[in-house]
């Protein structure tokens, strides 16, 4: 056995749930009922501690060590440890032996070499080299779900019923249950579909729950403004009355006539004469709550984690989902003809060197991602002062600088190092337009030029070839921030007062020394290495959306050989259908970040999600999907009247 | 988990269907039975059964399954008693006549009482790094690499 890969495999049937358990663990191994009673290290080696929750198992029951080429079990319990039925205090364990502790009977098998194991080694995303095995806790459950019939391309409905899992039937299923799903369901309801025909499966009841959490963590409190336009209303498919009009109306009634007039002037004169209007986060969430209530979202939403989707022999899709909680398991199948995938960003993007830092130091406090909860950073800074290193220069970085500026009003002893990969002296150009740059920040009101949503750039992109699209998206997109006057003032002030400093370079590694983090960077202009010392590092580089990062999409892509676009996301048609997934009359659509790189640029914005929903709703109406009626101007107007008077659409 | 198994004869063979306490049915928390596929979750085609006939649901307060009549003009007969309106409890062996079709409650399993004192808890596996994570991380994602747990598999919680 290779001394570096000393692993053994344990198999047993859980006495309570009767479920097969399969676990591969690194030696040494401690087994018992209580984690804290078992040693965490022995002779400097990290111990794999296995907790078996049964009163018949002692708090610390047995220890398995590798001694002189043998596996040795030492009993630590009054009730005894048995090898093949024989009680032992110290005994040698062989391949194929059965280890007994309380009501657990565990079969032991040796794993010859780590190459033959099915344990997962994750690969470094940049170098493609395997990452070091830092106490990797690999658990392989014998997976009885999704059921075995999900291995075929097409499932017969009769086989589904034979699995003994509950099978439900519904016309429309929205997977994700976030804002993308909500907006699609909103269109379906307005097009005439009834509440009982739709189910949205996801984790959280409020469609904006995840979005809101990411906003709050990235320093957009409810009173702050989102990077979204006045008429991008996820609660209102007509975009009228827009958020600016609603806010002006409210302020007007409160007697704040000046601010009311200011919003109206902004939407009239933006972006040339006035700063672009953006709605307050809290107002947007409140408006979504109202619309959710109006369309019956709370009856449509169901908690669940979708694990796999397959085509069926009756032109539908079988969706295997789990609505398990931490103390019970509950799984089922839902059959539907029309499926919408809006699973959002599959991951918060962690920079690889910061990920390594976490693995090495187990320090989750001084290095944080901007999208994680990191309030403790600002609390600490306010009390003790300190230096923060910010990485990334998008809108999230701007918001963090703003927050630190606010904290700095109460403690002057705070410094900011803003690390950027390279200087930016010129903004992107497209035809005659060029973006403005100031202090290496590139400005654009939204993440795309506004004509990408409904204007001429939308049409250009839709008609472009895949190669052209790649170029257009590069020209129009990129990392930009909003040209807010307060942010520009803060940066200018910081630079001139010396508490804010911009540095350039590629990070080599991040280490922990005493109480600080040290970032080693390869300087751009200077020879050799630069060391940056900081109390905190905030990674503001963004979110990740490759299809292979989401296990559900990855399974679909590999199982049905779906094409991906140049950004590694799902390839969709102009109406956002995944055409390769067509199952007779059945249709599958996608929306949101998982479709970027295709016919539409602004896929992950409110208005972009509405555009995608409209295109797929139109195509569903064209194939006469049940309940769907195309909106002509008369019924659109009557639906708008129902919206304004807050009545249910159907 | 609470579960009720219903069985009836259809075209000469026994059909069984499980009903759970929190079903993903067309109406939340209740399973409806009748002839009309657009309104019912369990569809039985027989001329004596109404389009929307009865519904079965779990009442967590009383910890039992109930049947409610939805069609006063075609009342079901439960254990030889007509149910014009309202609801009755179902238990193992209960007989339900919908029109001329008899359905039997083959089994009822309630988690209350027969569950072991030991709570077997589950945890989640990060799809990327395969680390074992507590359920509390469900909405937050993996703390090691930021991966969402929206499609994560669950395993018996083995803590290390």
Automatic annotation (TrEMBL), chain A:
Matches recorded under Pfam families: FHA
Coiled-coil portions: none
Annotated ranges, domain FHA: 29-88
CDD domains according to UniProt: FHA
Name of the protein in question: FHA domain-containing protein
Organism, as annotated: Gloeocapsopsis crepidinum LEGE 06123
Automatic annotation (TrEMBL), chain B:
Classification via SUPFAM superfamilies: SMAD/FHA domain
PROSITE patterns given in the database record: FHA_DOMAIN
Residue ranges occupied by any FHA domain in the UniProt entry: 31-83
Database matches in InterPro entries: FHA_dom, SMAD_FHA_dom_sf
One Pfam family it belongs to: FHA
Entry-linked Gene3D superfamilies: 2.60.200.20
CDD domains: FHA
Superkingdom as given in the UniProt entry: Bacteria
Protein name, UniProt field: FHA domain-containing protein
């Amino acid at each position: 056995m290779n001394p570096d890969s000393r692993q053994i495999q344990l198999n047993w049937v859980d006495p309570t749930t009767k479920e097969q358990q399969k676990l591969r663990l690194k030696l040494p191994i401690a087994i018992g009922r209580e984690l804290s009673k078992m040693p965490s290290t022995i002779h400097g080696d990290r111990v794999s501690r296995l907790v078996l929750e049964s009163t018949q198992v002692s708090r610390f029951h047995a220890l398995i060590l590798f001694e002189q080429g043998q596996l040795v079990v030492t009993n630590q319990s009054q009730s005894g440890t048995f090898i093949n039925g024989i009680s032992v205090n110290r005994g040698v364990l062989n391949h194929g032996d059965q280890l007994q502790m309380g009501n657990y009977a565990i079969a032991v098998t040796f794993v010859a070499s780590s190459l033959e194991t099915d344990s997962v080694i994750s690969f470094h995303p940049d170098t493609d080299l395997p990452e070091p095995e830092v106490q990797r806790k690999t658990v392989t459950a014998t997976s009885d779900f999704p059921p075995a019939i999900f291995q075929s391309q097409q499932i017969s409905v009769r086989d589904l019923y034979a699995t003994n899992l509950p099978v439900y039937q519904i016309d429309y299923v929205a997977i994700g249950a976030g804002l993308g799903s909500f907006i699609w369901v909103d269109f379906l309801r307005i097009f005439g579909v009834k509440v009982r025909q739709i189910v949205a499966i996801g984790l959280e009841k409020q469609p904006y729950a995840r979005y809101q959490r990411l906003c709050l963590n990235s320093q957009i409190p409810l009173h702050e403004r989102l990077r979204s336009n006045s008429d991008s209303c996820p609660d209102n498919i007509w975009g009228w009355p827009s958020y600016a009009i609603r806010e002006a109306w409210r302020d007007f009634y409160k007697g704040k006539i000046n601010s009311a007039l200011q919003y109206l002037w902004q939407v009239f004169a933006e972006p040339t004469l006035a700063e672009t209007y953006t709605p307050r986060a809290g107002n947007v969430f409140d408006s979504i709550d109202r619309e959710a209530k109006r369309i019956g979202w709370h009856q449509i939403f169901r908690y669940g984690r979708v694990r796999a989707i397959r085509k069926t022999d009756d032109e539908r899709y079988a969706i295997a989902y789990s609505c398990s909680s931490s103390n019970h398991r509950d799984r089922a199948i839902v059959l539907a003809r029309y499926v919408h995938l809006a699973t959002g960003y599959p991951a918060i993007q962690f920079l690889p060197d910061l990920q390594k830092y976490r693995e090495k130091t187990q320090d989750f406090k001084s290095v944080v991602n901007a999208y994680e909860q990191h309030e403790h950073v600002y609390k600490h800074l306010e009390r003790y002062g300190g230096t923060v290193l910010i990485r990334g220069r998008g809108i999230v970085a701007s918001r963090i600088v703003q927050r630190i500026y606010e904290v700095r009003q109460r403690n002057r002893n705070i410094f900011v190092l803003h690390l950027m990969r390279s200087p930016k002296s010129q903004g992107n150009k497209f035809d005659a337009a060029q973006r403005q740059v100031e202090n290496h920040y590139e400005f654009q009101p939204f993440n795309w030029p506004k004509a990408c949503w409904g204007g001429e750039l939308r049409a250009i992109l839709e008609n472009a070839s895949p190669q052209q699209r790649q170029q257009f998206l590069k020209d129009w997109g990129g990392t930009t921030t909003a040209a807010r006057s307060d942010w520009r003032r803060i940066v200018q002030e910081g630079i001139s007062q010396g508490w804010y400093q911009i540095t350039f370079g590629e990070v080599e590694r991040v280490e922990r020394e005493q109480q600080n983090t040290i970032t080693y960077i390869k300087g751009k202009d200077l020879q050799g290495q630069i060391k940056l010392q900081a109390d905190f590092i905030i990674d503001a580089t963004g979110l990740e959306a490759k299809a292979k990062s989401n296990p559900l999409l990855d399974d679909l892509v590999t199982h049905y050989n779906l094409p991906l676009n140049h950004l590694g996301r799902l390839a969709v048609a102009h109406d956002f259908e995944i055409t390769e997934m067509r199952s007779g009359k059945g249709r599958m659509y996608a929306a949101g970040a998982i479709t970027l790189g295709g016919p539409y640029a602004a896929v992950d914005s409110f208005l972009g999600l509405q555009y995608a929903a409209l295109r797929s709703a139109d195509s569903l109406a064209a194939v006469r999907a049940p309940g769907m009626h195309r909106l002509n101007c008369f019924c659109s107007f009557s639906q708008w009247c129902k919206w304004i008077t807050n009545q249910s659409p159907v | 988990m609470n579960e009720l198994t219903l069985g009836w004869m259809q075209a000469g063979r026994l059909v069984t269907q499980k009903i759970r306490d929190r079903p993903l049915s067309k109406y939340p928390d209740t399973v409806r039975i009748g002839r009309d596929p657009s309104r019912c979750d369990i569809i039985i085609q027989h001329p004596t059964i109404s389009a929307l006939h009865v519904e079965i649901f779990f009442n967590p307060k009383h910890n039992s399954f109930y049947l409610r009549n939805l069609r006063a003009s075609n009342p079901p007969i439960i254990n030889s008693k007509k149910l014009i309106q309202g609801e009755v409890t179902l238990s193992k062996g209960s007989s339900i006549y919908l029109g001329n079709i008899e359905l039997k409650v083959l089994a009822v399993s309630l988690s209350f009482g027969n569950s072991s004192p030991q709570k077997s808890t589950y945890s989640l596996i990060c799809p990327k790094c395969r680390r074992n994570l507590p359920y509390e991380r469900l909405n937050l994602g993996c703390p090691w690499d930021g991966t969402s747990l929206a499609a994560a598999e669950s395993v018996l919680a083995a803590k290390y």
